[in-house]
Design goal:
It contains eleven helices and two strands; from the N terminus they run αααββαααααααα.
């Protein structure tokens, strides 16, 4: 395929993905916004006022970056896993695989469409957060870079989950038993400085802790970890998952019947 044909295929996949989740926006965009708003009310206003400061900021200011990042992570993952598995279930994906479109274009198209949903939800949640507290971004470059890379990473993870899933029930196993526990224990609601040395060490094995803290560092300027490790880890996982996704598509594992 020449460059124009590659671009046409790439942009078509992205437009189709964006139109898909925008067409059903009451199911894809509204629920996470309602959920995060409840978090802001319960943890930020009601419980947060009794907790006091954390990391030198009010609890509301401390928890907002974590909740924004949680919304981006869950929606980036959920979009591609449901979309690509639906294409696989309906056998539409076989039409893509036999087309001259390179596999990396298919993978990148699905990922970017999913990243778009994650960033839109994150932006809406940020606007809602501004009605509860004020945010003054300390490091705009780090903030944008880590949220974008995190969305890409979890979109790739969702894509691989969709390839291995054999039923609609399977696409909820990883989010329920892996993603949700890691997110809740990833420093969204607390600083690991509150934990004992043993649990601090155990928490540092959680990759989501690094992403949440890097984003919090970009917004507030405080972090429990070195943000350099966060970027190194996220970039490494992106390369690994992208290569794994391409390998699965090239060999057609769990895709061709």
């Amino acid at each position: 395929m020449n460059t124009n044909a590659v671009w046409t295929s790439f942009s078509t996949i992205i437009r189709r993905e964006v139109r898909r989740f925008m067409r059903i926006w009451p199911q894809t965009l509204v629920p996470p916004v309602i959920t995060m708003s409840l978090y802001f009310v319960i943890f930020g206003s009601l419980i947060g006022s009794r907790i006091g400061e954390m990391g030198g900021y009010s609890y509301m200011e401390f928890v907002v970056p974590g909740l924004i990042m949680m919304a981006v992570i869950t929606n980036s993952y959920a979009n591609v896993v449901s979309s690509f598995y639906s294409a696989k279930f309906q056998r539409n994906v076989e039409e893509l695989l036999v087309s001259p479109t390179p596999n990396w274009v298919i993978l990148a198209g699905y990922v970017l469409g999913s990243v778009t949903r994650g960033l839109i939800v994150g932006l809406v949640v940020t606007l809602i957060a501004l009605s509860f507290t004020s945010l003054s971004v300390q490091h705009i470059g780090i903030t944008i870079a880590i949220v974008l890379l995190t969305a890409v990473l979890f979109s790739l993870a969702g894509f691989i989950n969709a390839i291995f899933a054999n039923s609609f029930d399977d696409i909820s196993i990883i989010p329920t038993f892996v993603l949700t526990p890691l997110t809740y224990l990833g420093g969204v609601f607390y600083s690991i400085e509150l934990l004992s040395p043993f649990w601090q060490g155990l928490s540092k094995l959680n990759p989501i802790l690094y992403m949440v803290n890097a984003f919090r560092y970009g917004v507030l300027g405080v972090s429990d970890i070195n943000v350099v490790w966060a970027f190194a880890g996220v970039l490494s996982f992106i390369v690994l998952l992208f290569a794994w996704g391409l390998h699965l598509m090239t060999h057609g594992k769990r895709l061709r019947h």
